[in-house]
Give the backbone structure.
Amino acid sequence: MSLERRKTTTLSVLAELVEGDISGDPSTFISGLAPLDQAGPEQISFLSNPKLRSQLSACRAGAIIVPPALQGTVDRPLLLTENPYLAFAKVLTFFAVPAYVSQGVMPGAQVHPEALIGDDVTISAGCVVGAGARIGKGSLLHPNVVIYPESVVGEDCLLHANVTVREKCVLGNRVILQSGTVIGGDGFGFAPDGHGYFKIPQVGIVVLEDDVEVGSCCCIDRGTLGVTRVARGTKIDNLVQLGHNVEIGEDCLLVSQVGIAGSTRIGNHCIFGGQSAVAGHLKVGDNVTIAGRGGVTNDVGSNQSLAGLPVMPHREWLKTTMAVTHLPEMRREVKRLKQQIDELNRKLSEDES
Amino acid sequence: MSLERRKTTTLSVLAELVEGDISGDPSTFISGLAPLDQAGPEQISFLSNPKLRSQLSACRAGAIIVPPALQGTVDRPLLLTENPYLAFAKVLTFFAVPAYVSQGVMPGAQVHPEALIGDDVTISAGCVVGAGARIGKGSLLHPNVVIYPESVVGEDCLLHANVTVREKCVLGNRVILQSGTVIGGDGFGFAPDGHGYFKIPQVGIVVLEDDVEVGSCCCIDRGTLGVTRVARGTKIDNLVQLGHNVEIGEDCLLVSQVGIAGSTRIGNHCIFGGQSAVAGHLKVGDNVTIAGRGGVTNDVGSNQSLAGLPVMPHREWLKTTMAVTHLPEMRREVKRLKQQIDELNRKLSEDES
Amino acid sequence: MSLERRKTTTLSVLAELVEGDISGDPSTFISGLAPLDQAGPEQISFLSNPKLRSQLSACRAGAIIVPPALQGTVDRPLLLTENPYLAFAKVLTFFAVPAYVSQGVMPGAQVHPEALIGDDVTISAGCVVGAGARIGKGSLLHPNVVIYPESVVGEDCLLHANVTVREKCVLGNRVILQSGTVIGGDGFGFAPDGHGYFKIPQVGIVVLEDDVEVGSCCCIDRGTLGVTRVARGTKIDNLVQLGHNVEIGEDCLLVSQVGIAGSTRIGNHCIFGGQSAVAGHLKVGDNVTIAGRGGVTNDVGSNQSLAGLPVMPHREWLKTTMAVTHLPEMRREVKRLKQQIDELNRKLSEDES
């Protein structure tokens, strides 16, 4: 792996960026970031995973980001911080993310004359922006993004190629949508009419609040009436499904292939593992963690770590799955016990007779 | 939530629309629809969920859609109908769905000169329609839809942005495709050739019959030979996978993230819960319901409600999952019984000796 | 089903194509391929599924592809080969796959002047190819494909409509991407910063080696640093998720809706059934088969067939799921045993007293 050098700097500048302390020469020259086993003398490296600590001694990096407790144990300039992982993210952003340069409405983009386009926006070739739509200052639409009429994209948003935002949906500021994602598709609502199904118009909207990120090929359906909402700071991985009128709280993480059925409300700071799911019309509290493939079929209170289908406390689930693997053996044991009891009964009746 | 007023009308017009009866003033003026707790005196509301019945007394709506049994219990003009949910859907359609206005082939669309385009069609910017494709009367293609050569889109279809319809596939009338969906992608077919895999050409097609709706980011693969078919009236939610040569019957509901493997045939009026799946080359009868996350690994006869992996009758599944949660306890119990039996045996041999 | 006649040929030409032997007249005229129950006297048919053997006697095909053991049992010209399924694939390719005709950069495509476009390429309407991207000789991009800057598409690749390939990603030769798929989306990486999440830039790439095929609406995320890699010959079905820095070996099959979490490494010749999943940072050996819906939560050695959540040997899983269905009955049995033991204890103490 080789990261392009965009900038060069010194250890002291990076320490200020991450609000960390320095052990060693603050003027150490740094031109990039690399993993412990790959970094050279002009690169900074990082120890965020304690398992890799054994790599420290052989590391050739110009400096290393480590927790303060490691000061004095490594013969290298160190950047000391309580959260090396966060510092790594900030330093990587410094070196690897190019500054955004606006390109305006590019040739091949179709922007409706009644759309409102902010300053410093880029609308790439193949994008279509409908009547009454608004694109906020500093937002970047990659090629072939479709913004339906009357939708609002906030400031400094980043929409990747082939994203669809349906009519009247609202994106806050700094929202990121990965490619192929659909915001505001019709919810799955049909009324049986005696022989088939009559489509219930889905006339609500989707609101993605500030700093929400949604992965590739996700589907966040609009409300039937009212709003499907993802609150500030929540991050959603790829191929995730949110049904109509779902509400997700702040700073949640939804890992890939999660499905949340219609009208369910999730609290703040929840984490849903990959392929987990919640049935419709339920309420999940704050600080709830659902393990991968977990299935929630009832309301769930706050501050719990759950797993299984239906979900149970994670520890219980570990015991239960362990017990399940012993089931065939246990079945044989129960048969043996039965035979022994029959034998005991036989003996007893012999004794009595 | 506030729905735009598109039209104003009277209670009697709406009663005719839904074939219901009126209790109260038929000339009551109605300009929109809203939930029970939000409706004002110019709006009609509805009681489709019996749990919300307590909201009726405080409801300020100009009229309320209720089942006939509630006549006389609410001091409001009522629209009486056996199916309030269906009536709600019809009234919402009346107020909230704008009449379609054709815009023809719009600037930025690429329609092949040998494509056949019906009357009153809209083909939006960024759409590409291939040679020999046919787009039926009244159909609307949102931006960036791609129709491959020789495909057929019926009349009054609605294809949302970024949909792909591959070559020679056939859509009936009033078919709705949500954004990002792919109709007629290659099926997953490869022949082992001793070292790797040789691609089996997928030269069949997909047929979606009249009134089929498919959600966002779904994948319905074309047949290897022959047809992958979704029959009339079936509704499919988001992120659903149908393998090559699958056949789905009429008026089925497939909830989000369902996967149906190749060559499997599903009957009419089936319901598949979210994330459920059926293995390949199986047959499922009519009126079968599979609970969310259910996994079908064998043929299934008609008129059943199943759950679990592999599926079993739903009631049995409830008992089984309940029993599973008691497994660790049961395991301890079996150990205790074993000890007691050992003790009994010991005593008996003592008695005998 | 009727396949278009593109070519006509003789049995001897087809025998040479599939390296098979002929029983009957080598000059038999063949103009297409059809299943056993549909083929007419100018078509060749095939027996790849032994269950269909009973259809052989009534088959009206001009010739039939069968294994050598069947020579003499059918009164038709035969094409004899040890691998009829592979022969079927090759003959179908011969008849049904039209030769590729390059159309160059088509009207409505946007190719950056600093992109490098090889000979015999087709770049369809609505495609956008960024600065510094390279499209290899003979590759075909269907409409609305987006290639970000500095990406490389190899020779003879086939990218279907609405595909996205992000910056700097690398596709080998003969790579096929079905519609809607996203190569190189940002991985799901965020560092907690005390109140919310700080985005970790995803500055690695994706490499898809030669002869890889990826289905519709798949998401293969770029590495955080370094590479997400799918090795030569591996085939991926629809709606599959590969997290950042995943590595998949050669000649694997990943069936629909599989999810592989970040940094996990899979060996060669593995098969993952539909909806199966692997947790992050794990290692799976060569020749491993995971049944549909299987969930891998620990490292897995080579040459195993596993199922369940967490996975166990497939045979064990069959026994275990069978035992689970007997659980409610077993629970009742344990209760009965307990009562009998209590009764025995009561009797014994009576006897003793």
Summary: Chain C touches chain B through 66 residues (CB under 8 Å). The two ends of chain C are 86 Å apart (CA to CA). Chain C has a mean pLDDT of 94.
